[in-house]
Each structure stands twice: as C-alpha cells, then as structure tokens.
C-alpha cells in the first residue's frame, strides 16, 4: 500500500483545500459568505474561532486577498439545467439556487461533506469538494448555545451573528477532523462582510456592496502541513478571487486557459514570491455609474463608492455611518500608506489618476454590460411543486 499523500488546506473563507504532492491533489474549497474582516480571531481577539485561528497562524495569512463587492458564490443562474452544478463538472450537488435559506429547514452542509469523504478512497481517488457555506449570510439564526458564547454583547443581532461565526468555525473543525481521520488532510480560504447586518470590517472602510476595502478585501489564509515552503507569517501580496481557479487547476495538473481573468498564484501563496498580478478591477457598474481599479499601491474610485461609507463601529450602528455621501468624481488612495482610506490624494497626483483612468477605460471597452432583469413569471415556484427549479428558460 502506498504511504498517505501530503495534503494542503487553503482558507480564504473562503475555503479549504487539500493537495497531494506526487499525484493530482484532493481539493476541498470552503467559502464563508459575508464574513467581516474583523470577525475572525486573528484580526479580533473577541471572536471565538479557534479552528480557523490555528490554521491561519500555522499557515499563511493573506492580507491582500480581494473578492467582489456583491455576492457571486450563489446567484450564478439556474433558469436552464445546463447552468446548474451537475451540468458544469460536479458529480453531485446538495444546496439551493437562490441567495439565502432558512438555517433551520435544511440539513447541515458539514454532515453532507463527511458523507462524501466516506465515499472516496484517498489513495485511489482524487476529490474536489466545494463547500460554500451560507454562514454567515442573513438570516441571522443560530442555536442558543453559540449565541451564549457572546453573552457580553448587548446587541441581539451582533450576538447572534458572532454565534454564527463560531458555529461555522466548529463546522470547519469537524470537517478538518474528518479529513485527518480519513487520511486526506489539509487546505482552507476566507471572504469579506456587511456591517449593515451585524458583521464588522474595522479598521477597513465601508461594507458589502461598496467599493471600499471593507466591502472587497476578504479575511483569508492558506494552511498546509506539507506543501507550503514558508509559513507562520502574513503575506501582503495582491491576490484576487478569480486567481483561485487557475491556481488550483495548476496544482491539480491542469493548464489554465490564456484567456482567463485569473493567474496562477501558487508561488506567491507557497513561498511568498511577488504576486503574479499588479492590478485588478474592483467593479465596473454602468447602472450605478461607478467603478474602481487598483494598480500597484494606488486605488482609483470613480463615482459613488456605495451607501455605507464610514468606518462603522460595532453594533449598535450610528445612523450617520449608514447614509450615502457626496464624493468627487474621482478619488485616489495610496493603500500602502493609507490602507483604511482616510485620505483622498487625487488632487495631489493627477498623473496617477490619469494612468489609472487609462487602465479603467481599457477594461470598460471589454466589459459585459450590467444586467438586472425583471422577475420572469415562468420561474414562479408554483409551476414546480412549490420549489425553485431550473427548466423555465
């Protein structure tokens, strides 16, 4: 019998990945929805996330790991069966098609993950397991035992939310234990969150749906017991969510298509090499008439960044932090000197503004126009036994 293969755990919470050295790897990718920057133990010692903290401290914390300002792990379309997971490469799927579900009417995702692990031989099979937890997305629901862990928090919504984070941490701990017990182990990943429900992004500015760092920079780490060349430190190299696909594809023995948005970041993740990218687009929205781009240390915002523009404290929230404000057409920030975006330096560096506007124009020329269609009556669940279902377009 062959000796067990080394595995990798990668976490943006977004995720857990397990990789093998000699053979195509096992990959387990975990996503947490709407997790705030300040809602993990390695950023905030008031949070109880021991499983995540342990992996983060022993792996590589990614402090410049970016995600989209609005949801994407769900909302990818299901009007036609061909858009659903089992028609796009997955052998099996358990989940839901819309953006949120009641936590108390569905089976626990972690339990299903363990069932899948029991069906795979870690020596003969290669596994890709994608675990996009709804936690900690609304609705704010958690068993009382987790809420009680934060009894010192007076605000109900924040107390419940923090309990949800700890319940998520326990689920990740259960999964990593199952991986270890079954001879798989290890790799994980973590994403950003909205202060306007109950999460918190301090000291970053803004929240989900905004172009500020608080709405786009995710708490993230990568952990591996065998594959990382450099561990126990914070990596500040630029990484975007679109980079994970070509990175994991390369590790699995594939070859990324030259037309992909993302780039292979394994040298950066594994050994701290300079990032394979020097710029990225936060978003371009021709409905809201705003956009943002980062090139090197500089970030340019065009138009209004969104509706949540302050450095929102922990709940209870202050009303003045929740309203939209007026901004110059273009704002420029030096994220190396000013990561919390307090100082607009556009008037001091018109040359930099011009350079970033040129890059933004380049991307605008190739973008797909924004699309927010009206509901289609053919999708009504009454046509499908009371369930949301594909097959109506």
Describe the structure.
By secondary structure, the protein is α/β, with parallel strands linked by helices. It has two domains: 8-277, Alkaline Phosphatase, subunit A; 282-364, Arylsulfatase, C-terminal domain. 20% of the residues lie in helices and 17% in strands. The protein contains seven helices and twelve strands. The protein has helices at 50-58, 109-118, 144-147, 156-181, 244-251, 266-271, 350-364; strands at residues 8-16, 27-32, 60-66, 128-133, 188-190, 217-224, 233-235, 239-240, 279-285, 290-295, 298-302, 330-334. The strands form three sheets. Strands 1, 3, 5, 6, 7 and 8 form a six-stranded mixed sheet that branches. A hairpin with a 2-residue loop joins strand 10 (290-295) and strand 11. The longest helix has 26 residues, at 156-181. The radius of gyration is 21 Å and the shape is globular. It starts with 7 loop residues before the first strand and ends in a 29-residue tail after the last helix. The model is unreliable at 1-12, 14-21 and 186-191 (pLDDT under 50). It holds the Pfam family Sulfatase. Residues 1-22 form the signal peptide. This is ARSB-like protein. Keywords: Calcium, Glycoprotein, Metal-binding, Signal.
Provide a compact summary of the structure:
This protein is 20% helix and 17% strand. The protein has 393 residues and is α/β, with parallel strands linked by helices. Pfam families: Sulfatase.
Q: Which architecture of the largest domain does the CATH hierarchy give at level 2?
A: 3-Layer(aba) Sandwich
Distance between the termini: 51 Å
Largest sheet data:
6 strands, mixed
DSSP strand content = 15-25%
Cofactor: Ca(2+)
InterPro entries: Alkaline_phosphatase_core_sf, ARSB, Sulfatase_N
Protein name: ARSB-like protein
Signal peptide: 1-22
């Amino acid at each position: 019998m062959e000796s067990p293969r080394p595995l990798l755990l990668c976490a943006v919470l977004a995720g857990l990945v397990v990789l093998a050295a000699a053979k195509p790897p096992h990959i387990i990718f975990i996503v947490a929805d709407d997790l705030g920057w300040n809602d993990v133990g390695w950023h905030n010692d008031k949070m109880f996330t021991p499983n995540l903290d342990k992996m983060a401290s022993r792996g590589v914390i990614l402090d410049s790991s970016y995600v989209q300002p609005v949801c994407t792990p769900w909302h990818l379309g299901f009007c036609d069966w061909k858009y659903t997971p089992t028609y796009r490469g997955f052998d099996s799927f358990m989940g839901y098609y819309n953006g949120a579900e009641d936590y108390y009417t569905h089976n626990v995702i972690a339990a299903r993950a363990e069932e899948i692990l029991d069906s795979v031989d870690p020596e003969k099979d290669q596994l890709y397991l994608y675990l996009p937890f709804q936690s900690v997305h609304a609705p704010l629901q958690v068993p009382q035992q987790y809420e009680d862990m934060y009894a010192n928090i007076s605000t109900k919504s924040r107390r419940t939310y923090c309990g949800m984070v700890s319940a998520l941490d326990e689920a990740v701990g259960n999964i990593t234990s199952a991986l270890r017990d079954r001879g798989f182990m290890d790799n994980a990943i973590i994403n950003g969150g909205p202060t306007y429900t109950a999460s918190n992004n301090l000291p970053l500015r803004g929240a989900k749906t905004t172009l500020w760092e608080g709405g786009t920079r995710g708490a993230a780490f990568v952990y591996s017991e065998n594959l990382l060349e450099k561990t126990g430190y914070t990596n500040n190299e630029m990484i975007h969510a679109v980079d994970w696909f070509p990175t994991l594809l390369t590790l699995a023995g594939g070859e990324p298509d030259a037309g992909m948005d993302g780039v292979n970041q394994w040298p950066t993740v594994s050994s701290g090499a300079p990032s394979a990218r020097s710029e990225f687009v936060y978003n371009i929205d021709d409905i809201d008439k705003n956009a943002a781009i980062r090139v090197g240390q500089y970030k340019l915002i065009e138009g209004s960044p969104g509706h949540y523009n302050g450095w929102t404290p922990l709940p209870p929230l202050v009303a003045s932090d929740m309203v939209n404000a007026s901004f110059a057409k273009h704002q420029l920030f030096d994220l190396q000197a000013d990561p919390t975006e307090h100082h607009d330096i556009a008037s001091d560096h018109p040359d930099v503004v011009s350079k970033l506007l040129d890059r933004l124009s380049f991307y605008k020329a190739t973008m797909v126009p924004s699309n927010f269609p009206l509901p289609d009556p053919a999708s009504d669940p009454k046509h499908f036994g009371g369930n949301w279902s594909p097959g109506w377009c």
